[in-house]
Amino acid sequence: MLPTNLDMDVLRTLVVSNDLGSFAKAAIQLGRTQPALSLQMRKLEEQIGVPLFRKNGRHMSLTDTGVTVLHYARRILALNDEVLVTARGGKDLGIIRLGLPQDLAESWMPGILARFQARHPDIPFEVQVGWWEDLRDRVQEGKLDLALAFGDAAAAHSGEVIGHLPLQWIASSRFRWDRDKPLSLVLPDAPCTIRDKCFNALNAVRIPWRIAFSSYSLTGVMGAVEAELGISARTTLGTPSSLVEVGSQLALPVLPHVPLTLFTATGRRSATLNSLLDVIKDSLMPPPAELPQLRIA
């Protein structure tokens, strides 16, 4: 019996539909009708031989098998795009200009760049670090090819939310909170999504607080935390190993997840950039066995 060959276009439809959140949006981006995409998904289920979707009210959700297939689809498409770029002499894009928030630039970015460079060793990088409004504007002005930014507000400005990162309270292991005094906070300058989420969480449970240190520089903020001036908050991807999670120890409210939004320059989506996006999205996903149900309608 001959092995089944999965259709690359069908796998791309699965990935795009998931990333955009609906088949309707995917149909517009892929230049096809929504019924055509539904037929593709039925074809994929027939090829694999097990259900990939389940009804969830008026929407469709991925089954556990569907989530696993999605994970492998990203890898297959990344290899497909890599073959095309390599066969064309690696000239798909001369240089990639990437914008990142400070929170991700220190600890998360090196792993992403290393994985991408392993696939595309001849593609140079230019990385700019800044706040989400600055990064969004640079993309719109053509100064960046793509940028990642935190916050719900970013999604209202032509951004695509590609993940939600957990936040945690962090401090030096030597930090002590005198309960007779307001909680000392060490945070980035406003405007800052993470700063706002800290304020809202503490105010909701009526924990008094004060700003002990504020800076535009994330390095300065982390230095102040290590110096025990107070506590701060960062995503689990960006927390330095020298600091510890203290939310449970101090009985602080759980912080909400923060949306991670992607901005892409018009006309710059290419096989190379799509390969980088696959690496980024894979890095935000836990192993297949731990993946949550994903709504794609």
Automatic annotation (TrEMBL):
Keywords: DNA-binding, Transcription, Transcription regulation. Signal peptide: none annotated. PROSITE patterns: HTH_LYSR (PS50931). Pfam families: HTH_1, LysR_substrate. Residues 6-63 form the HTH lysR-type domain. One of its GO terms (molecular function) is DNA-binding transcription factor activity. Belongs to the LysR transcriptional regulatory family. This is DNA-binding transcriptional LysR family regulator. It comes from Nitrospirillum iridis.
